[in-house]
Write a structure and sequence with these properties.
Elements lengths: L11 E7 L4 E7 L7 E6 L6 E6 L4 E2 L9 H15 L5 E8 L10 E2 L2 H9 L8 H14 L5 E5 L18 H5 L9 H14 L1 H4 L2 E7 L3 E7 L2 E5 L20 H9 L5 H10 L2 H6 L5 H6 L3 H25 L4 E5 H6 L1 H8 L11 H5 L13 E4 L4 H10 L18
Parallel strand pairs: 1-6, 6-8, 9-12, 12-13
Antiparallel strand pairs: 1-2, 2-3, 3-4, 4-5, 7-8, 9-10, 10-11
Helix pairs in contact: 1-3, 5-15, 11-13
This protein binds adenosine-5'-diphosphate (ADP).
Length: about 400
């Protein structure tokens, strides 16, 4: 492959986000926040597909090579990158890890003890944690001695007041870890940092961030800290999503088990893969497809999504005791004029009033000049949060004395 411009810097950090059969990668220089290369390997195995793009989105030739395991994908990608950036050796590697339990409140340098702790948390996120750990193992094997940092989706929410951290279940369950962890923390961390730069007067205010993508949640933030999240013990709770149900009465699950004899695996499949926009529309999990469709079911799926989002803005504002700004992010939040408009149209009582033209062009501020509550659209960048945390640890080596895991930005 040919080297993307500008000239290759000397030191690199690599970000990895490992799923069951996918691996997202980002290669960053030591200074710039724009990635040099981003990669997505999908269907890892005999049918694996690998796509690479430059940081500006131009497709790069996909390298030939073995894509049968996460480790092979890494080896293939790095071999190809080395021909573009001679001498390439990542100075640090950052990993997205879905669950950091109650103990990890910031990015953490990985060693055997931390990895054992993360393994112990697998029962709390059985669908994701094992794949994140597989990515970590693959990277440690491919790059022995390179500092590796775990960045947790749960960490940003770890300072919730107790009432937002618990369920009304017997205390023993709370004590063993059945809590409202909250997720999408890397996205909220990014938005919170970007807000502090772009609208500093709002940084200390009451802000509700709506991360609306295939996964969707909301977060109440004050002074850059998460106060409440719509997601709870798992990434199922709260808003309806592409294929996930969002909040559902637990009595429904009892009914499915007792009356329909569904197994845990079947219920898992139903709640994670067959519900949400897909389940309601019977058509698609993709908002663009639903917006373009003309079936009553697609319209109802959108109605439900909008209704639950609007309801959650109210709940988050109540948790904060007011709202000064509402920020939309994620694929739907950043791009769908229609969904933003519909969520906001009955929130005028909260001081929310959209400027239609600004909204139509996805402007940074989409509220009117005189609106009491500022409404904004901000693209999120979870990979950059990971890259920054990795960058801070470039010199850490295996010596925890040099570990610098304090704030992300
Ligand atoms: P993920 O949670 O997998 O990262 P994204 O944040 O990329 O997902 O969001 C994907 C969602 O964003 C899809 O439902 C897609 O239809 C929606 N989306 C992207 N662009 C638009 C658009 N222009 N209008 C409406 N929806 C959009």
């Amino acid at each position: 492959m040919s080297a993307p411009t500008p000239a290759a810097p000397q030191r690199f950090v690599l970000t990895l986000n490992a799923g069951s059969s996918s691996l997202k990668m980002g290669l960053y220089g030591s200074q710039s926040d724009t990635p040099l290369v981003v990669g997505l390997a999908d269907r890892i195995g005999p049918e694996g597909v690998l796509k690479l793009k430059s940081g500006t989105g131009d497709p790069l030739p996909a390298p030939e090579g073995d894509l049968s395991t996460h480790e092979q994908v890494l080896t293939t990608v790095i071999a190809s990158l080395r021909s573009a950036y001679p001498g390439l050796d990542p100075a640090a590697i950052g990993h997205r890890v879905v669950h950091g339990g109650i103990q990890y409140t910031q990015p953490t340098l990985l060693d055997d003890a931390v990895i054992a702790e993360l393994e112990r948390l697998t029962p709390f996120a059985p669908l994701h944690q094992p794949h994140n750990l597989a990515g970590i193992r693959a990277a440690r094997h491919a790059f022995p001695g390179v500092p590796q940092v775990a960045c947790f989706d749960t960490a940003f929410h770890r300072h919730h007041p107790w009432v937002n951290d618990t369920f009304a279940l017997p205390r023993a369950l709370y004590d063993e870890g059945v809590r409202r962890y909250g997720f999408h923390g890397l996205s909220y961390d990014y938005i919170s940092g970007a807000l502090a730069q772009q609208a500093p007067h709002l940084a200390a205010a009451n802000v509700v961030v709506a991360h609306l993508g295939n996964g969707a949640s909301m977060c109440a933030i004050r002074n850059g800290k998460s106060v409440a999240s719509s997601m709870g013990f798992s990434a199922l709770d709260g808003l309806p999503m592409g294929t996930r149900c969002g909040q559902v009465d637990p009595g429904v699950l009892l009914y499915l088990m007792d009356q329909k004899a569904m197994s845990a695996a079947e219920i898992t499949e139903l709640l994670y893969k067959k519900s949400g926009l897909l389940g309601l529309s019977g058509l698609s999990n993709d908002m663009r497809t639903l917006e373009a469709a003309d079936t009553p079911e697609a319209a109802q799926a959108i109605d439900y999504f909008v209704f639950r989002c609007r309801r959650e803005v109210g709940a988050m504002a109540a948790a904060l005791g007011g709202i000064d700004a509402l920020v939309f992010t994620g694929g739907i939040g950043e791009n769908s004029r229609l969904i933003r408009e519909r969520i906001c149209e009955r929130l005028d009582w909260m001081g929310i009033e959209l400027d239609r033209q600004r909204n139509a062009r996805n402007a940074l501020v989409i509220s009117t000049e005189l609106a009491r509550t500022t409404v904004m659209v901000m693209p999120t960048d979870e990979e950059l949060v990971i890259a920054r945390a990795a960058r801070m640890n470039m010199r850490a080596g295996r010596d925890p004395q040099h570990a610098r895991c304090a704030p992300y930005a």
